[in-house]
Amino acid sequence: MKKIVSALLALALVGSVAVAEVKTAAQVEVDTSLFSVADVEDMDAATYFGANALTDSKMTFSVDTGVAGATFQMKVISQEYVSDSKLTVNATEIAKTKLTVTKKTALLVAPGDLYGWVKLGDVSKLTLGSFTSRNANRLTGALDTYKYGYSQGYNTAKLAEADKLTNAVVDFYVGPFTLQLQPVASAKDDFNIGGRVFGSFDGLANVTVTANYNGGADSASSSTILGAYADITAIENVGIVVGYSGLIKKDANISAAELRLQFKADALTVSNHNNFSFGKKWYAFYNGVGAAYKANDKVTAKLSVENYMGKDTQTATEKTYNKLVITPNFTYTVEKNATISSGVAITTVKDGATSIGVPFTLQIKY
Hints:
The chain is mainly beta. It has one helix spanning 2-17; strands at 23-36, 40-43, 46-49, 51-64, 68-83, 86-89, 94-97, 102-120, 124-133, 149-151, 159-161, 165-174, 177-187, 190-201, 205-215, 223-232, 238-249, 254-265, 268-279, 282-294, 299-312, 319-335, 338-343, 345-349, 354-365. The protein has two domains: 1-122 and 333-366, no CATH class; 134-294, Porin (Beta Barrel), CATH 2.40.160.10. The protein is 4% helix and 69% strand. It has a 19-stranded antiparallel β-sheet that branches.
């Protein structure tokens, strides 16, 4: 089946060259840490040093004929793993133990996104390969990569995404609506099927509804992930997104409410993101405020302050989580398609442990 699909994509791509102009594009991005004191987290009152990504580089190449196209991406990731002092917790006491410091650097070279697409007339499009499709406007003018979804617990800053389709997507266009279907993908005892409806109403709003069903060996392991977001566009220079993300699973339902605001005034962009997730006797809240100022054609300065907090009352011992991340940085445009970004990332958790890092990003498009 894979060979047949590959052959069809290749034939469509070759055939389209004769009737359309071929467009190619490439992008190289290098993310690294120029300096890092520690990588700290706070989980159940346990403070530790975890995995620190030293570099995360990727190269992307794409070709587009208008009728068919393909994208290929390679990744190179270097990580350092460090363990140090840790707090161990039981019901009666908190004991501090000293762990042996260990360091290990790993270099990983792996393929990233790899997919091809074929336009099936003016009413449909087929995309196959390894990729992720997101649709809702994330309002990332001053806050960068915080995605839509729900927290998986009171003490995690990472979201389970609810606006995501992967690997195989068929698009259908009907008036102001786009219908996207993710066919069944199976692995051993489980399978996944998903879909999305997107509607664009000029001058008023864009609405996105995404659903993924993950079937398991039994009802306890099966789940449904839902995401619904409305991007209100009726107010000039003001962005508003309201939404819902959720997990439907036996005895483990999770819901999340989303509110994002963005205001633009000439060279200044101010953003505010809020996510409130809750499950059975726990909640997690994210609040981020960011400002970006374009000083001139070369320099854009940014400042973001993000707070993650939560509480769990499922046991006799109440657990809390609090993490603050402050990131002043700047982007310098070397040339039209080449930028350099750097700054300082300061992270503090509730017990006072602090990490300081100097991230650096080089991005080139051509």
